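Margin note from the TA: students keep mixing up input and output lines. Inputs are the sequences; the output is the structure of the whole complex. Example:
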Amino acid sequence: MSEQIIFKREEDMPYHAISFAPMTWNKTGSWRYLRPRFENKIPPCHEGCPAGQNIEGAMVLIGKGKVLEAWELFKEENPFPGVCGRVCFHPCESSCNRGDFDEAVSINALERFLADASSRQGRRLSRTLEKREGKVAIIGSGPAGLTCAYHLARMGYEATVFEALPVLGGMLRVGIPEYRLPKKVLEEEIDQILELGVKAEVNVRLGEEFLLSDLKEYRAIFLAMGNHRSKRLGIPGEDAQGVMSGLEFLKNINLGREVVLGKRVAVIGGGNTAFDAARLALRLGAKPFILYRRTREEMPAFLSEILEAEEEGIEISYLVSPVCLIAENGRISRLECVKNRLGPPDEDGRRRPVEIKGSNFMLQVDQVISAIGEEADFSALPKTVKTQENAVLTDERGATKHKGVFAGGDIIHQPRTVVHAIGSGKRAAIFIDCLLKKRKWEDLFEALRIGERGSLSMRRYLQEESLRLPLSLKTVSLKDLNLDYFDYKKRSKMPKAQISKRLGSFAEVNLGFSEETAVAEANRCFNCGVCNLCDNCYIFCPDVAILKQGEEEPNVIDYDHCKGCGICVEECPRDALVMEEEGK
Amino acid sequence: MKKIMVGNHAVSWGVMLARAEVISAYPITPQTTIVEELSVLCADGRLKAKFIPVESEHSAMACCIGASAAGVRTFTATSGQGLALMHEMLHWAAGARLPVVMANVSRALGSPWNIWGEQSDSLSQRDTGWLQLYCESNQEVLDTVIQAFKIAEEIRLPVMLVLDAFFLSHTAEPVEIPEQSLVDDFLPRYQAEFRLDPKDPHSFGCLSPPEYFMEFRYKMQQSMLQGKEVSRRVDEEFGGSFGRKYGLIEAYRCEGADLILVTSGTIASTARVVVDSLREKGRKVGIVKVRLFRPFPKEELWEVLRDAEKVAVVDRNVSFGVGGIFAHEIRAAFCNEKARPPIFSYIAGLGGRDVTPKVLNDMVYQTYERPEPEEQSVWVGMRS
């Protein structure tokens, strides 16, 4: 620290104001009354991902060509990036700020890209060496069950999965057709879970081969049996030969069983199962058509499914309900239908179909596939596991009323999607760990939650508590960004197989990004709220008070000299800095 | 060597001979041809200076401040509205004690829009800490540019020389071009005591709190007062080297005069003709031309004006609510003197209106006729 120079007389002073010694006795930081601080915030994609994947981090890594690191980052939260990269309905993209700027980043396609890239390079996760006391039983090997088993195994627990079917994967295996999710991709990701030491038993159905009370050696149980029972149409003739549920159809094909369809296949329903069934029938050489009781607006299927089915030439009739199935010689031959109009909205907000009297008509059919929804079968559950309206009741942890029993996936109250199932499996793993360690869990939501929509971070859970940075409560919106730094750039399109090549084949429709496309697409990401070391703060700081720590290291603020002008905060393209009042 | 040139080019050639190193300016009528000629001189290599085009006069002066702080000889030129836009930076240049030289082609300030000669622009800047020299001829313009650098660099204050729009700026006269070697001897390379230098870092113009600020201002005032003596000496030395000198003021035919007309700029040339003809008629009339306005040459004026019975001041400017500025300054300067002559104040030639011999004649006769000056400045040459 230098001495302050004091001039006693006018004659001693220079003729103009000039410094003769450094001002280290009075650093300019003392002028500051506002203080900038680096603070990563919540990007809307991350908040919007029910599996809580660190999307913004992966985008930065892919953008720099570090694809395998991006894959590892995703794997910290979700064992199924290859699956999700194909079948997820990607709420991340509908949350993407870029969507309000030009077009959302193709996050889903990039997820698939990084999974495929790691698969091509034979990348495997290393097995956890740490062993923890306590065995956990998992009922059902769908995305919820396997995710729970995966995270428990990574924490060192012995997890055993009980599966009713002869194969693992649940709905991923038997409910999704090959052309959307190739078996090879699913099996590889399941193999990686098993390689971590997860045990699996197949052909064991709860309520038939075992009961919950048989699982006394397990300190916790995770119920994730899924909804495998199709709803019935409830009309005359439903039990005739040639009538099958969509789920049954998909399961039979996926398990390699022979299915004989006629030419004209009527698929009833507007959900994803209906579309999967119709598109699968098309590939088996049939001429399927879809009957839906409302309009395209109200259809619950993903838009991409509807568009691809239309591309493939599948006819869709709207505002049509089946009335009666008529068999000839024991086999279905005609379907009587009635036309509807839309009435007032029902409790879920969609307009209710109202039958138009006397508009009945007859269709010639060889096969009817009904796909109007699925439900769970809770007959094997003890009374202590409370259920209500086709769902197991759980608390915010996913725990049921029965101590030590958790539930997740399609059997609890949450949207019935793969990624919600994965999220619930991860959540169960976290709170089963708490239970087995006898750790208090009430404070964990504040520490782990990514935004307001229920996503939790496994990465943060596994961090030493003392090392956990405080979590921002702010989700970044478009208006928080400095858009001067971004150019309009179209979203990269997923290449697809030609229609002619899709028919008569189970080959995958979507073909994936090239590395070049993937890197360019990842670089479209705004990295909302997250410092990506762009160095804009360093370039703009008029007081050279942003200090570089080295390549790939975050910058730090030199508070001895930062005057609190706020230029760094203003010029940060992605809202990764905050301004606070000094002394707070 | 003599050349026929307009006043603006006399400025440019003076700058070339003074070997200015950085020029930054923004064009404005009637100053534009100064900048054009300088850019030509820079482009063809006759003047080895960095020419920095800018987007405004404010930036031009900011540029000059930076360059001068770095220790190089710096020049700019402007006029009227441009000078007004520089105002803030004029204070800064003076306070930072930077010897920037500027030529101001004096022009009326709008509104209403007017591009013609009037001193209100430069006189509006009289409190900024710049020395001000008002020129009468193109030769004086060229010579004053060279003198201005020498004065500025010695007392570390900026100097503004003023030439009347069009009467000088766009009027050609024969101008003696001094030998470069003689100019180099008269005006050696500028040596700054302090300069911006990354190898020897100092902060310039840093915050000066109340306990120091006043001392800096006191030093400025002392240097400004010293500027009068330095200006006189530099003019004498210039005369010794080049055979021409102008004084801080010039008294013309004031011997035994009972009435003295005080003028500045090109009106002085017209007044010389009027005085010659009045003297022929037996009227004991003389003129004083004020060349140095800041610092104000009170003693010099007093020496000449004290014995006159009446003094008439012609102002091509107006300070609204007071009147002619030169008259006002002279009255203020003399107010503590006993037995001072009455000061008659006239305003003429605003916005470039011609101040003809007849206008000056009328002024002289009015002054003779009135026993006492009017309370307010009298406006002459009005439409009637």
